[in-house]
Amino acid sequence: MDKRIGNIIFLLMQCSIMAASVLDIQLRVKDAQGKALSRAVIHIPFVVEVIVTADDNGMYKPMLDGITKFHVEDQALVSTISSTINGVSSVKKIYRYVLRPDKEGTFTIGPAYIDYNNQRFSSHSFPLTVGQQQAEDLKSAEAFVRLVVDKKQGVIGEKIAFAIRFYGGKSATLSTISQPELSGFSYEPLSGPFSGSEVIDGVTWNYVEWRTDLFPKKSGSLVIPPVMALYQLPRQQRSHFGFEMIDRLFDAGNDQRNSYSNAITIVVDELPPFAGILNGVGTFSALKATVDHAVAQEGEGIVLRLTLEGDGDLNSIEPLPLTMPESLKYYESKTSIEPKKDGRGNQKKIFEYIVQGVKPGHWIIPAQTFTYFDLVRHRYKQLSTDPIEITIEASQNNYHATAQNNISPSLEKKQESQESEQLSDDSAPLMTRGPWRTSDQWELSLRWFVILMMLPILIIMIGYGKRKIDYYNEHHAADVNAAAAFKHARSRLLKIKAKKSTDHLYDVFIELFARRYKLSQASVSHDWIQDLLQKKGFSEQIRTEWDLFFNALAEQAFFAQGHEYDQEQLQRALQWLDRLQEKL
Amino acid sequence: MNMRTHFFLIISLSTICYGINTEEIFLQANKAYYNQEYQRALDLYTLIDNKASTVWYDMGNAAYKLEHFVEAMFFWKRAQRNADPTLMNYINHNLELVKKKFNHDHDDYPTRITNVVLYYSSWLSLLWWQFLFLMLWFIVVFKGYDLYKSRKYWILWCALVVLSILGLMMCTKYRFNNRTFGIVKNPDVPVYVGADEKLSVRTMLHTGDELHIIEKQDDWLKIKIHDVVGWVHATMIEHRE
Hints:
The complex is a heterodimer.
Chain A: H1 2-20, E1 24-30, E2 39-41, E3 46-54, E4 63-64, E5 71-85, E6 88-100, E7 105-109, E8 112-116, E9 119-122, E10 126-131, H2 135-139, E11 143-149, E12 153-155, E13 160-168, E14 173-177, E15 185-187, E16 191-200, E17 203-216, E18 220-224, E19 228-234, H3 244-250, E20 254-260, E21 264-269, E22 280-291, E23 295-297, E24 301-312, E25 328-338, E26 347-357, E27 361-365, E28 369-374, E29 379-384, E30 388-393, H4 396-406, H5 409-426, H6 446-475, H7 477-499, H8 505-516, H9 526-535, H10 540-559, H11 567-583
Parallel strand pairs in A: 2-10, 12-21, 22-28, 23-30
Antiparallel strand pairs in A: 1-3, 3-6, 4-8, 5-6, 7-10, 8-9, 11-13, 13-17, 14-19, 15-17, 16-17, 18-21, 19-20, 22-24, 24-26, 25-26, 27-30, 28-29
Helix pairs in contact in A: 7-8, 7-11, 9-10
Chain B: H1 3-34, H2 38-47, H3 53-65, H4 69-79, H5 85-101, H6 109-121, H7 126-149, H8 153-178, E1 181-184, E2 189-192, E3 201-205, E4 210-217, E5 220-225, E6 228-233, E7 237-238
Antiparallel strand pairs in B: 1-4, 1-7, 2-3, 4-5, 5-6
């Protein structure tokens, strides 16, 4: 029994080994995120994976039916995995195809197959519906990218505003965005990013965008394929094994995702038939011509500047061919574009030419024209400059050379004489009267002139200052007198102290009152002082003391014999001076 | 006669003799000019010391006849200093002629305005302009405040306008009387950043361009023209010390 079971197991193992030697092919269809795909969006690439499992490492490249209906963006062997189980080796290879559907409809992808040893190994086939992007596609997205144009139909050369917008929530961070394929258009490099917000199906999305203007160069349906944005989202699920710290050290904790934008098809019509030279398409307002100088010598360069103002593909407008008389020749010099001022108004394109006179004379640079297709009125229009008159003079060197080379000496002399006559008629006559020697011209030097100019200002300032001083004196005369009188009296007392003679103390006080109240000394009497002290509020007792003190001074002044020095009297005088100063 | 009388007689006679001599040269030069001996006339005019505007003007005429246009322009420009209005008219007329020779047909607006102001400033001498200006200045300073207080604004405004005009005339006259200028002789004269031909060129001057001479250093002139300051070789410029 045991032997039978062992034989059955051996047979099964043999069968499994036999099965492993057979090729196995599987087919998977995924979107850019790696999710299984049942419905594709037109112009947005998707991924087809063909997984081949074989028992050896042979070169079994699979064939895939149905991919010719798509644009193959990429195909490659992306993975080879070798494994050995129970001594049996096998190899698993993954071939990846990136396909872009450019048509709507239902298509069949597959089967994938390999012909090996006259035997075909094949996978199942996969039905795929391709349609337009639907609102549901965006609702589930964390971020997406869109191509935006302001119009989907125009004519050759018409301006179409184009933008790439990346819409993302707070968690999505844009890593990079692929460059759009803008074949068939003339355009400036994208500018940006600019930010904004937009409500899509009731959801407010913030976006960043890059803009430019497109100018179709040919007619037909011009497709702008989708662009791919790579962005990052925070990873939802982290390690379950308690190694978050280590994870964070080596991993930013973000998942990288990609998103494809929509594609745009712009229908470009031919311009209406026109017999003539067309210079541009757009809306243009003015064509002006200027020259840097209107008079030049033969061969001297005059810079002619044509300024075209308006809105259109200024980069594509070639320098205008000029209409010029035979006597003038021109060369194209340089062109430049003056951008809009503060984003307003129109751009200007400036064409510079060098114009040279071949023959002397007065010549006219005729009106120059610019023919364009007006996008507002949808008809051809023409702008013209004003004619410019210029004068070309014979070169002085040439003139003298011609005169010297071609004219005989006698004729030359005659010509000079004629010229001299002509000059004589032109120039003003000789001054035969009037001073022939300059007389001394009197004039004020700059220094004196400035001093005299400043003089009235100085006078006014002095007058103003004087008025101010007078005003002050008028309103503060009493205080000034008092201060001065007491100061004078004190200095006299100090002198008395120095001389050690108190005979003149009486005079000091008389002079003090006279100075203080601007009186003559004769007017200051004993009674007058008494009245004054009473008026000033001195008490009866103090006035009595003053009487005693002042009488003593008078006696000493009038009846003293010789020089006397009474130090106590001097001290009292100083004290009285202080007392009086307080109230007078 | 005492010593003092002798001294005054000698001084007076020598001055008269000098005057007669100068007048004689002037008359001879005029005669040579009318006989179309322009070079002789120019030489004779050059002999006169302390030339008045009239002489400078006549020198310009003689140089013009000799087709020395740069020299003529220089002499006429020099004659503008202290010229009377009649002479100024003649000078302006002749300058227009000579500018055509240099293709300077169109003066820019600042030059035109300066010429007009210069013409009217020739009506009076600088001293008179200074005197009138100072008189009006005194009146404005002393009476301006009173006029303002009494609300006689129009009188004040008139006074200020006249004062500005007088100031403009005076400044123009002063500038022309005290300037040192030169005229470019050659067609393309480089203006160097320093007094050395190896240095870089700042701008090019053309025949007939008038420039202000700031200083002289050996054979080089430091000049200013249209706010450009640089150095040019003195031989390229018509100027007088």
